[in-house]
Amino acid sequence: MNVSDSQPSGGKSGPIGKMTSGVQHLGRNTVNKLKDVNDKIKDAEKKVLNVAQDLALVPPLDPIPFPWFCLLMIITILPLVGYIMSFSAMGWGRDCMKFAVDNHNVGYYCLFFCFCIMSSLYILDFSYWESKCMRIIRAFFLVSSAILFLVGTFFSAADYPYSPLVVFMLIMPFYLLAWRKVSKRKRRRDGQPITITIIAFTSNFRSYVSWLPGPLFFCAVIASVAWIIWAFNDEKHAWSSKTRDTYAYYVGCEPNFDADTGYPDCAAKYTGATKKWDCYDDSKEYTAIGDSANCGAACAEVYDTCLDAFMIWAMPFLASLVYFFICFVFVFLNPDHKNASPQAFMKLFLCICFLFWVASSLAASNAGITNALMAFILVACCMGALVACGVHGVKSFQKDVENDFINKFKEKYGGYSMLFKGMFILTCGPAVLGYWLISIVNQFIRWVLLLLFILYYLLFCTREYDNYREKLGLPLTKQLEGGEDGDKKFLLTLVAHKQKETIINWEWTPVISNGIGIGIFVQVMGILVTKITYLLLAMLRQKIEDEGWGPGFVSTLMIIIGLSLFLLPPVPGVPIYFMCGLMLVEVCEPHMGGTVGATFYAVFLGLFLKLLACACQQKIIGENLGSSVAVRQMVGINSSLMRTMRVILSKPGLSMAKCSILIGGPDWPTSVLCGILKLDLIPILIGTLPILILITPTVLSGLFVYLGQTHDWAETLSTVCLSATGMAQSGSMLVAAFYLEKTIAECGDEIDAVEIDLAVEEADKKAKFFATDYHTVTAWPVLPKWVRIFLLVALINMIFSCYLTMIFSTSCFETFEMTSKVADLPGGNAMNLFKGLGWVAIGLFALSTIQFYIFKSWAGKRVKQLQENGEGAEKAAENNVL
Q: Does the keyword Coiled coil apply (predicted)?
């Protein structure tokens, strides 16, 4: 008998062995499948993270040693916690704001003295003080100015609630940069100073900068989550009229007793000397409307103009936005990172510009969100430039920028240089003139002090004076130098003179034209859209309430008016969706089974309006305009961007790229462009269906405003929904930009295969000749003197108009939201929405626009005369060919 035959049945060849082998095989297969699933999950996570980073939803995170990450988290989160505890309702924000309101005059004195000190230091050339004595004096005054600025900004929060956020946003980057290396100084026995480093994160300063986005992003997420939990966990913390009035009363906001726009009947229940109401109990809690000791429903909105309350409530969320923005700034300003490119900079710039579109869309729905957003945009622009200098150093940054970044930027976006210069003149022109004026004073002081010291030296030339002069480092200003490269012969300082010469040598005609064009766009979006359109919608809402119309008539009216507004190029869809939620729900609620049914109907009607408007814009407007060669040429139908859009939008189905373009783009231009491109209507309408992610929160926001009349919690949800609307609109635009860039990079052959419009190509050739002739005719040196003055006056009018409406908006317009009533305006007259200064701004805007039109007409006639005389560029080219 074989040995194998005598083995028990449990061996490898037996039943148990086979079962064991099968289990092992199954286990190996399971492990392999689990590994495959795990690898797929990791790949999916990596793809999602890459997409999120490309869309600027998550910053690119470089690996950091864990101990340093923990230390950076502590360093980063401490000021955030301190700021939130000091300036928000989550901490002692109400007490701090109350203290600022009670002593608000202190802020103006501090800021005035700060301005005087800094102006004096600049005029006296403090950067040239080299002696030990003068360096100590300079340090003392700089520290004093910084303290005065911080104190002044804190107390100015009473009148400008954004000021703490502004200071926090400007200081935080430099606070983080200061932690790069914490050192202390000791002296050796020979008296020479040495530096001992206590903390050094890395020897490479730019590597340290690349570590910062991660901790900043996590801190922003932590702050946002903490604020959301705090706001929704307790009814007392939710945003409502009760919460607003409680905060406003506590900090000492002035009630709105204006006879025209306020609540004058409530003044009898308020004691101005003690700032006390008879409808607030001893614990300073606002008594709910309906209580026996309250002020009545008529006084519920008496604090509607107090923005301090909203800022105290929303400050943690705004602080998290600051951290979120700063983390991307550090990414973009790190030249060793792949995202530190002109494309990344343009993404950030376009994101800020698109936020302006979002702000104009939300303006009439909620003034608090819009004002906070506009302040955030303004400070973000300023902070980017300051941090760039802080990261690289002024001289190093200038060198890097000139040698690397700007060269790449010019190569990719050089054609837009006149656009950027026009924007610079429109926004910073008055500041440049002020800077030159201070430079003149600075140069004058240099001459005066130089003459005084020369006179003193001639009269009292002694050895003691020479020693004293050397010790103090006198004179206090930069020494004037003669010669060809000296600054004695200039009215301005040498630096200011060189800058002035650079600006003067610009091609001023296109710069001024672009500046006026940008001003027209800003004013149309800021006045015609956010003021007049919303005034008309508010009048419609009031008419519906007064007449008591039924659901059918109101729906028909909404379709007619909504479609009419959609057909206007500058009007966004957000206010139309908002009015669907605000007006339709109230009218349809009794007839459609309650609030839920009426809300679904309002969302459906908003979607129907959008699709109907898209069809009309595409088929009626777009396709008719597309038959014009001039229109196709104007939109650049042969450009790489337009051909890329054609490739994306022509594909069937609901791709992310297609939907993001149709949703993220401005309503009227996107639909009309589809018609110009001769795209099929049905696929475009199907691709537009995901617009529900924008319509739904906007309709809900209007719904919660309506419910807020009886439910305090609804006002919080209205604010949240409006924020979601802004995020959806901004996010879809960023997604569209991402997929356009991705398609250009990956589908070059498919884009090149798109047929070129020969008629437009021929028109483009002629346009080049026209552009050459136009440049010849309108070149600044050859323009008649009266035309140059005429064009400069048009630019000045536009600058004044934009400054008035943007900086002094409250002096130009009455406070008016879509939920307001025309009867609340002075005299109950809709025209009184514009104050006297507002009419001045509109008049300057209209005058500048007319002047610009006259100039363009004059230039067109000059070009036509040049071409008729056979002196144009096209004729010259033909002669050269012959």
A: yes
